[in-house]
Design goal:
Layout: H1 4-70, H2 73-80, H3 85-99, E1 102-108, E2 114-121, E3 124-127, H4 140-146, E4 152-155, E5 159-160, E6 162-163, E7 166-167, E8 173-182, E9 188-197, H5 198-206, E10 215-220, E11 225-227, H6 236-240, H7 246-249, H8 251-258, E12 263-266, E13 269-276, H9 278-284, E14 292-295, E15 307-314, H10 315-341, H11 346-370, E16 374-378, E17 384-387, H12 389-395, H13 399-402, H14 414-430, E18 432-440, E19 446-457, E20 464-472, H15 474-488, H16 498-515, E21 518-527, H17 529-536, H18 538-555, E22 561-566, E23 569-577, H19 580-594, E24 598-600, E25 603-605, E26 608-616, H20 623-643
Parallel strand pairs: 4-14
Antiparallel strand pairs: 1-2, 1-9, 2-3, 4-8, 5-8, 6-7, 8-9, 10-11, 10-15, 12-13, 13-15, 16-17, 16-20, 18-19, 19-20, 21-23, 21-26, 22-23, 24-25
Helix pairs in contact: 1-5, 1-10, 17-18, 18-19
Length: 644
């Protein structure tokens, strides 16, 4: 029966607890919203920084391409009269096709006349015939680059490509880069020009910014829409002559952007923006080069050199992202208010929990005994207190041989033992740790175990016990290693296959760039192998391939990579080579080793080897091009041998 005393006691308890709790909820609601807003801002800034970093890397590649083309051996051969303009056009077509980001590559002579021009249209590069070539002497990308010293790069702002004074349709946003050309005597011989297709690059920049309903955009320095605008807004000034600017729809946001704010909220939404200053963006990637840069020129729009790249969350989308935190707080508030109101049922709840805990303890003990997995209970110092039969089956140690010893006695190596302290610390901090460890059985054999370590705190004395559950995954690890070996090695010779070879080539080139040394790529094709297959059969042919692989491997250094690329083609990565002469010497050793007679029972067989050598980074700083260059040189050597 409820009386007035019960009600008064309820109010005396309920009123202050509710007031304190509601105050805490209010503080948590404010703090949770602030944390979520900061998290959204951080996510957008991270995506923006990542996109800009990707843009900087792309610019670095483009500059490298321009310098390579301005100093190419094909162009030097044309200037010396040793090669034709058609051969130079073929080089430009191949370069354009492989890169896929240049709308045009042109060589302009000293008068600004287009001598060679390759367009990239519909995915097929083609050389423009002489009757359609134009004079570009009045263009900044010619007159500024032509008079510049060696090592100078000109870069324009972004604009729409024009043909014969008209904007090309469909529109093609481009950035023009040029560099002067000098002959072997240091005399000026014109300019190389790249028309960089800006649309796919800008698409790559803004694609990662579309997070959680965000709307990315790109503006020029005056706020004209380049990307991200509504219908008719992008490039409106160029296409219609009437400016459609960001400030028309978002005046407050534009004002904040002009003040230099990078993350802010207005009545229209939440914004993350960065102004890309052309000089900072360009020179940041080329600070280590002896490189001069000319940005834009007379007659160009300066605003197109400095771009705003950003993203905004409309106000309704931004509120929706914040709402889940508020909704959670409302649910929690209602739940705790109910708990406070039901405080009178605490005894019954506590009693029931004790009964359930007693049952759970008996159930856990039974599960521990029945489990086939290894289960170890250790104290806070990692000393084993209890093990189950699954532990004995997995490790071979009886309970009396394990209890009282530290968990580290199972670990296979000293470093694994030292790592155990970090694992226990992580489990203590997070409540649980899961991973793979290398243990030793009683027999001395090593095995891998998937381990889950839980830290359980005793509410009575606050001591921590650790429960380690382990599953033997040795067979799984062995299978995974064998699958990796089969996927990355040639089944016949046991050498790395093309997939692993290309991966090692990327790694070797990275080390070469970091450490400042050269590597040699040797592309090897056997001479006279097909007649052996035809005459003696594939079994003898396979023996020859295995023998050749062994000879090449025994000829080069231990750290060099020897791979079979397929058929009778092999390749070698010779690391830390001093010069091309040393690489050619290695090629001669390999050729001499391969062509020695092979005794196979009653048969005496010999094959030759045509070897193409390419140097990184001297011949090419791009791995695909380096491999193609070595392949070309190998075929040239093969043709010379056949013609001889």
């Amino acid at each position: 029966m409820i009386n007035l005393g019960h009600i008064k006691s309820f109010l005396v308890c309920f009123a202050p607890l509710s007031a304190v709790f509601l105050l805490l909820v209010g503080l948590l609601a404010w703090d949770g919203t602030s944390v979520r807003e900061k998290s959204i801002a951080d996510d957008q800034r991270f995506a923006l920084d990542k996109s800009i970093s990707s843009l900087q890397e792309r610019i670095d590649i483009v500059v490298s391409d321009l310098l390579i083309l301005s100093e190419s051996t094909h162009l030097a051969a044309v200037l010396d009269g040793r090669a034709s303009l058609d051969q130079l056009a073929d080089e430009y077509k191949l370069f354009t096709l492989r890169r896929g980001i240049y709308d045009q590559i042109r060589y302009l002579d000293t008068d600004g006349d287009e001598t060679v021009r390759v367009n990239y249209g519909s995915g097929i590069p083609y050389a423009v015939p002489g009757r359609d070539l134009q004079n570009k002497a009045s263009r900044p990308y010619f007159n500024l680059a032509h008079t510049a010293p060696r090592g100078t790069v000109y870069i324009s702002g972004i604009d729409l490509n024009e043909e014969f004074g008209e904007i090309e349709k469909p529109i093609k946003p481009v950035i023009r880069l040029s560099a002067p050309v000098f002959d072997q005597f240091g005399d000026r011989q014109g300019v190389v020009v790249l028309n960089l297709r800006a649309a796919p690059i800008l698409d790559e920049v803004i694609a990662p910014l579309a997070l959680e309903g965000a709307k990315p955009f790109v503006l020029d320095h005056d706020g004209n829409w380049i990307l991200g605008g509504e219908s008719g807004e992008n490039w409106a000034l160029d296409l219609t002559g009437v400016a459609r600017v960001f400030a028309d729809r978002f005046p407050n946001a534009w004002e904040n952007m002009r003040l230099g704010l990078q993350s802010f909220e207005t009545d229209t939404g939440f914004y993350s923006v960065q102004l890309l200053d052309a000089s900072d963006l360009f020179l940041a990637r080329n600070a280590s080069r002896a490189l001069s840069v000319i940005f834009g020129g007379e007659g160009e729009t300066d605003s197109r050199l400095n771009l705003y790249v950003g993203t905004y969350l409309p106000s309704d989308t931004f509120s929706a992202l914040l709402w889940p935190e508020r909704g959670t707080l409302i649910i929690v508030t209602v739940a705790f208010m109910l708990l406070i109101a039901l405080g009178s049922a605490a005894y019954a709840w506590t009693r029931q929990r004790q009964l359930v805990a007693s049952f759970d303890a008996r159930l856990s003990e039974q599960v521990l005994r029945a489990s086939k997995n290894s289960v170890v209970v250790a104290d806070q110092d990692g000393i084993i207190a209890k093990v189950n039969p699954g532990f004995t089956a997995m490790t071979g140690y009886l309970p009396n041989e394990a209890i009282g010893k530290p968990l580290s006695f199972l670990r296979a190596e000293r470093e694994d033992t030292e790592q155990l302290d970090e694992i226990l610390m992580a489990a203590r901090a997070n409540g649980i740790w899961e991973g793979e460890v290398r243990n030793r059985r009683k027999s001395g054999d090593f095995f891998y175990s998937n381990v889950v370590i839980s830290a359980i705190t005793d509410p009575g004395d606050s001591n921590v016990n650790f429960v380690e559950m382990g599953l033997d995954i040795s067979r799984h690890m062995e299978n995974a290693q064998e699958l990796w070996r089969q996927a990355n090695h040639d089944a016949l010779t046991g050498l790395p296959n093309r997939l692993l070879f290309e991966d090692r080539l990327e790694v070797a080139c990275g080390h070469s760039e970091a450490e400042g040394h050269s590597i040699a790529l040797l592309y090897i094709d056997l001479d006279g192998f097909k007649p052996i297959n035809d005459r003696y059969g594939h079994e003898v042919g396979d023996q020859v391939l295995r023998k050749v692989g062994e000879r090449i491997k025994n000829t080069v250094r231990t750290g060099d990579t020897v791979a079979r690329l397929g058929g009778d083609e092999f390749a070698v990565i010779a690391d830390d080579v001093k010069n091309k002469e040393e690489a050619e010497w290695v090629a001669q050793k390999i050729a001499a080793s391969v062509q020695r007679q092979m005794e196979m029972g009653a048969l005496s067989i010999s094959v030759g080897a045509s070897i193409g050598v390419a140097m990184f980074p001297e011949d090419s700083a791009e791995t695909v091009a380096l491999l193609g260059l070595a392949d070309d040189k190998m075929y040239k050597q093969k043709r010379i041998r056949k013609s001889g």
